[in-house]
Write a structure and sequence with these properties.
The complex is a heterotrimer of chains A (426), B (392) and C (308).
Chain A: H1 13-34, H2 40-43, H3 48-51, E1 62-69, H4 76-95, E2 103-110, H5 115-128, E3 134-136, H6 140-152, E4 157-159, E5 172-174, H7 179-193, E6 198-204, H8 207-223, E7 227-234, H9 242-251, E8 255-259, H10 262-274, E9 283-286, H11 291-297, H12 299-302, E10 306-309, H13 318-331, H14 339-358, H15 363-369, E11 374-375, E12 383-385, E13 391-392, E14 396-400, E15 406-411
Parallel strand pairs in A: 1-2, 1-3, 3-4, 4-5, 6-7, 6-8, 8-9, 9-10
Antiparallel strand pairs in A: 10-14, 11-12, 12-13, 14-15
Chain B: H1 16-36, H2 39-64, H3 72-91, H4 107-111, H5 127-151, H6 156-176, H7 178-181, E1 192-193, E2 196-197, H8 201-227, H9 229-239, H10 241-246, H11 251-277, H12 287-300, H13 305-325, H14 327-343, H15 348-361
Antiparallel strand pairs in B: 1-2
Chain C: H1 7-42, H2 49-70, H3 78-100, H4 109-131, E1 147-149, E2 155-157, H5 158-179, H6 182-192, H7 194-199, H8 204-226, H9 241-251, H10 256-276, H11 279-296
Antiparallel strand pairs in C: 1-2
Helix pairs in contact in C: 1-5, 1-8, 1-9, 1-10, 2-3, 2-4, 2-8, 3-8, 5-6, 6-8, 9-10, 9-11, 10-11
Classes of the chains: A alpha/beta (426), B mainly alpha (392), C mainly alpha (308).
Protein name (chain A): Urea ABC transporter substrate-binding protein
Keywords (chain A): Signal
InterPro entries (chain A): ABC_urea-bd_UrtA, Leu_Ile_Val-bd, Peripla_BP_I, TAT_signal
Chain lengths: 426, 392, 308
């Protein structure tokens, strides 16, 4: 879909102006506090030849970026939120003057839930459209498919999803958590507050759950002195969980640790509830259910369970309140915001900050300047890019409520260092 | 319906109009498209053409032998994975992988605590073995499946559903055994073939021409099979299997042969796919891609070898351009195409060509005889009995 | 793996596991019934079966929304109304599809497979466009959730009982319809010899249309029931495809008994293996087992002689 800036087409122009004004508000204090914009770069637009030495699509007034997600196919359910968040961020950035004096224009492409399509579209964005950066991908498979393209044509990808780690590239900024950031602190918390010793691990059968469970198992056995009483994986799309639920009943673990995804997720929690497992009594900790998924599962089927994320829509801080308000204003009152949606929102902002620090759109300079970029106005709170291109971020545990929102019951006091190749956990 | 077998065919397997058709296709693929399209689009065509191998196999096995396989993705995948294993091993040289705890094995194995190369990966260090495996492994697999089923006279819908289940099984297996297969991400980041970097534009252009060359060779092979006695027995079998059996032919052997041939053709396509796209993943093995490949054949014309190639190109081109401009509408278009091709023009593009265009073109080519006096019957014969013949 | 458990624990778990197997059996049978009727009667494999089921699920969702917003007092019984609505909506769609598409293809069973696959793509995109790409959560009346404690460990899922009861009711209804009613006699006559049936005055076209509608309607009811245990989204129907087809094909085409036996065998095998092995392996082994048995006994478990 090469339609340019067709974002919230349903908004009237007056509404859009209102929106832009409103969206700009929360960002203003940030300018002062971060001090990144006091440089002359912001006061006067630097010459295009100076900020773009590699032939990217940058003019005196505009800079083009790409958005690459699945709008069709099975992954469209998950990726919609990310697209919305990225468009919101771009709109907000434009409302406050753009990047280096240039408005961001975006080209959206549809990956169609098909990995070669992702690779092709990535190549189109980089080769034909010469975009300065791409916000996109959701599944690990799509990222693995585009990674060689980004490395070959030297593009910059901002990848929003929490993922299994084991990857690091000059050409990717991972704005979601890698596995250890999501897993370790949550397990520590459940071990301490629920004195949990035995864990039943259950996940969908693919790389992310398997890698995550491997890290979880090592942590449980080596650091918590606990034991894993069962470990099960089910094919993607599996809908019958009664047998494993019986096994869980037999083994009576202190904690059910779940990473089930997609349609299976819904089936798993509905059947768990039907089997009489009360999630208020049986501790269940998951790393795969955000507010987005609860929509499909139904709040009443999931209430009481704990989810381990870095962001919840209910986070109580001014950044998040502004973000949630702006998001709902743009995309409707009923939309919910999950962890990945927030991480996708960070992408354009981090890119903007990096460009302004580097004083250039050149990918090499951005890759270099990324380390140490700070974004204090992130809805999840202050974040910072690590030299390994992942984000320092907090781990939080939320307990699901009947209305489909989470009540945050724990957050790490410090930012957790991203460690995509964790020693001792592989 | 009979295919006229003129006397000349006994000495040479191509009729004049076939030769013209192949020459035109070669002209299009080797000259027109490379000149007309930029590198980026040409690589798309290269990818589409890998599916054309599958479509070609389906013409033989579905169009001529009446065996509808909904699991051709299995063979496409087997071929692709064989090639991917070779390329991955080359990309995982000890120097490239020295940060791993076990250097020299593919990165995904290292992540899965596999400390030495599994035995079945070992032979894929050799390019010769890989090439052989691309053709032979799927054929053996097809032989096992075909032998079990055709000897027991499983056919029609049963065969279709069983092949579909096989596609599902293989997908689950590949995804589940990620230490050996790369799991759902597939085998990615393939770099070079014998030290030749396959990621550059020039390499991709060369691969495109190799792909076209192979495809043309396979087309000739298909024509040869079609015009041989074997091809005519296949058609006879599709139309009246029992009659062929009563005439003393071993029907199942012919079916097994053509199924194996189709499998090998698909696998060559898969291997070329891996080379051109640079990775292989289980999403090309499953049910959905397998059925999509059937539709390429149906659109092109299930009875036409060249039609299948054009059908593949057309559907994929439509898919790419449709999904670029109206992603929402694409599935409606594809679904509508399925229905239209079945209801309105069951012989696909080739059928339309033969009914409307060819009769008018005939005189232009020095009065070359039109292929068929009458347009092919609007409804091809029922492709095999509904229930296995054993039920009779 | 069992050494650390007491005998009572084990026996109650086996009891529950047996019950889980029965639930799975009911689910499989319910999924496959509609398809089996269509396949048995006309040799048509309806690849859009999953999408018909999801239509039933959406009907349930909208009924629940309607009751919540307008007559919350009767929310407790909405599910029954939803199922009836689902039956008629999907049945009507099925009859329309038969009239527009399937009836032109009776001589080409493999082509119906392609055409209905195309239909399934269109329906999926239609759901996505009309109902949105996200899954919807269907709220259930509270009495349908949870479980009945029998002993301390043994608990019986209410929704499992519900699905079982529903499956039994529908199976019995179908059996009566097929084997006791005059309409059923017509259907069976058409299956055995279409031309002769036509010659003795049976309106075969009408029989076909109603049979197809009935099959789709049952799919709709199944989809409605599955909102209790599964997800409702544009592509959820795909989750059921392989299982459903295998149950039908494994059972042998033209026999209700075959479908029942096949659903039973597959569900018990899967449920038992899931208990003793890990999830993915159990699935692969079940599918492989079915495929291998089908290779050995291609006509399925049960088959009636048909003259063609």
């Amino acid at each position: 879909m090469s339609s340019e800036n067709d974002n919230p087409s349903k908004l009237s122009s007056t509404r859009r102006k209102l929106l832009m004004g409103m969206a700009a508000l929360p960002a203003v204090p940030m300018l002062a506090s971060s001090g990144l914009f006091s440089s002359p770069a912001y006061a006067q637009t630097p010459a295009t030849s100076a900020v773009n030495t590699t032939g990217l699509a940058v003019t005196d007034t505009e800079v083009t970026v790409g958005i690459l997600h699945s709008v069709t196919g099975t992954m469209a359910i998950s990726e919609t939120g990310s697209v919305q968040a990225e468009k919101l961020a771009i709109e907000q950035i434009n409302a406050m003057g753009g990047v280096l004096g240039r408005k961001i224009k975006y080209i959206q492409e549809d990956g169609a839930s098909d990995w070669p399509t992702f690779a092709e579209k990535a190549k189109k964005l980089l080769v034909n459209d010469k975009v300065a950066a791409v916000m996109g991908c959701w599944t690990s498979a799509s990222r693995k498919a585009v990674l060689p393209v980004f490395e070959q044509y030297n593009g910059m990808l901002y990848y929003p999803t929490f993922y299994e780690g084991l990857e690091q590239s000059k050409n990717v900024i991972y704005t979601g958590q890698e596995a250890t950031q999501q897993i370790l602190a949550g397990l520590d918390w459940v071990n301490k507050t629920k004195s949990a010793k035995s864990f039943y691990l259950i996940g969908s059968d693919y790389i992310w759950p398997r890698t995550s469970m491997k890290i979880a198992r090592k942590h449980i056995e080596a650091h918590l002195g606990g034991k894993v009483s069962g470990e099960e994986y089910f094919p993607l799309g599996h809908t019958q969980f009664n047998s494993v639920i019986n096994k869980i009943k037999l083994t009576k673990p202190d904690v059910i640790y779940a990473a089930v995804v997609g349609g299976s997720n819904v089936a798993f929690y509905k059947q768990l509830k039907a089997a009489g497992i009360d999630l208020n009594k049986q501790t269940l900790l998951t790393i795969s259910v955000t507010e987005d998924e609860i929509d499909g599962i139904g709040g009443e089927n999931f209430a009481g369970a704990y989810s381990c994320m870095k962001y919840f829509q209910s986070l109580d801080n001014p950044n998040n309140k502004d973000f949630v308000a702006a998001f709902k204003k743009m995309w409707g009152e009923k939309t919910v915001i999950g962890d990945v949606t927030q991480a996708a929102y960070l992408g354009p902002w981090l890119w903007k900050l990096t460009v302004e620090k580097a004083g250039s759109f050149d990918v090499d300079k951005i890759a270099e300047a990324s380390a140490g970029i700070e974004f204090p106005k992130a809805p999840e709170g202050y974040v910072k890019i690590h030299p390994n291109h992942h984000l320092w971020s907090k781990t939080r545990v939320g307990q699901a409520q009947l209305d489909g929102q989470f009540k945050v019951v724990f957050e790490t006091p410090e930012l957790i260092e991203p460690d995509p190749f964790p020693k001792g956990y592989q | 319906m009979t295919i006229p077998a003129p006397k000349s065919a006994r000495t040479f397997f191509l009729r004049p109009q076939d030769m013209i058709g192949i020459a035109l296709l070669a002209l299009l693929l080797l000259v027109v498209l490379p000149l007309a399209l930029d590198n980026f689009r040409l690589q798309f065509v290269g990818k589409y053409l890998t599916y054309a191998f599958v479509a070609l196999g389906l013409v033989l096995c579905w169009g001529y032998a009446g065996i509808l396989s909904l699991g051709q993705g299995v063979f496409f995948g087997l071929g692709g994975y064989c090639m991917a294993m070779y390329l991955k091993l080359e990309a995982s040289s000890p120097e490239n992988t020295k940060i791993q705890s076990t250097p020299g094995i593919p990165d995904f194995m290292d992540w899965n605590q596999i400390t030495s190369l599994p035995w079945f990966w070992e032979p894929f260090r050799s390019f010769g073995f890989t090439t052989l495996a691309v053709i032979v492994v799927p054929a053996i697999f097809a032989f096992i499946v075909g032998f079990a089923m055709f000897k027991r006279r499983v056919g029609g819908v049963y065969f279709a559903i069983i092949t579909q289940a096989l596609a599902a099984i293989l997908t689950i297996l590949i995804i589940g055994q990620q230490g050996y297969t790369g799991g759902i991400n597939g085998i990615t980041d393939l770099r070079s073939l014998h030290g030749w970097d396959i990621r550059t534009d020039s390499a991709k252009t060369i691969l495109y021409f190799i792909c076209v060359g192979l495809l043309l060779a396979c087309i000739l092979l298909a024509y040869f099979v079609k015009s041989s006695k074997l091809g005519r027995i296949l058609v006879a079998m599709r139309d009246k299997e029992d009659r062929v059996r009563f005439s003393g032919y071993d029907v199942s052997s012919f079916k097994i042969f053509v199924f194996c041939l189709a499998a090998s053709l698909s696998a060559i396509g898969g291997a070329m796919f891996t080379l051109q796209v640079g990775f292989m993943s289980p999403s090309f093995v499953g049910i959905v891609p397998s059925i999509e490949m059937v539709i390429y054949t149906a659109v092109g014309g299930r009875l036409s070898i060249l039609g299948a190639i054009y059908g593949t190109l057309l559907v994929n081109w439509a898919k790419t351009s449709f999904s670029e401009s109206f992603p929402e509408l694409w599935l409606f278009g594809l679904g509508g195409l399925f229905i239209a091709v079945v209801l309105i023009f069951p012989n696909g593009i080739a059928g339309l060509w033969q009914s409307y265009v060819a009769p008018r073109l005939g005189p232009l080519f020095g009065g070359a005889p039109t292929r068929r006096a009458a347009p092919p019957s609007a409804s091809p014969p029922a492709s095999g009995p509904i229930a296995p013949a054993a039920a009779e | 793996m069992f050494s650390e458990y007491s005998l009572t624990e084990l026996s109650s778990i086996f009891l529950m596991q047996g019950f889980a197997g029965l639930i799975l059996f009911s689910v499989f049978l319910l999924m496959a019934l509609g398809l089996a009727i269509i396949f048995g009667q006309m040799g048509v494999i309806n690849m859009a079966h999953g999408e018909f089921m999801i239509l039933g699920a959406y009907v349930t969702y909208f009924t629940s929304q309607f009751f919540l917003n307008f007559i919350p007092g009767l929310f407790g019984i909405y599910f029954f109304i939803a199922m009836i609505l689902a039956f008629f909506v999907t049945g009507a769609l099925g009859m329309a599809v038969e009239w527009l598409m399937i009836r032109r293809l009776y001589k080409r069973p493999l082509d119906t497979l392609l055409a209905t696959w195309g239909l399934s793509l269109i329906l999926q995109q239609l759901y996505r466009t009309v109902f949105g790409p996200r899954e919807v959560g269907v709220e259930l009346p509270s009495w349908m959730m949870g479980s009945l404690p029998v002993t301390e460990v043994v608990e019986v899922q209410i929704n499992g009982l519900f699905v079982m009861g529903l499956t039994i009711a529908i199976t019995v209804a179908v059996a009566v319809l097929m084997y006791k009613s005059s309409w059923g006699k017509q259907v069976r006559a058409v299956v055995q010899n279409r031309v002769m049936a036509g010659a003795v005055g049976i309106n075969t076209e009408k029989v076909d249309r109603y049979t197809f509608g009935l099959g789709c309607g049952i799919a709709g009811v199944a989809g409605s029931a599955f909102t209790m245990i599964g997800s409702t989204g544009p592509t959820s129907g795909q989750l059921y495809i392989v299982d459903t087809f295998l149950v039908v094909v494994f059972g042998g085409a033209q026999s209700l008994l075959g479908t029942i036996a096949s659903a039973f065998t597959i569900s018990q095998a899967q449920s038992t293996m899931e208990f003793f092995l890990s999830g993915s392996m159990a699935k692969v082994l079940t599918l492989l087992g079915v495929v291998i048995i089908l290779m050995l006994r291609p006509q399925g478990l049960f088959v009636i002689k048909v003259r063609r």
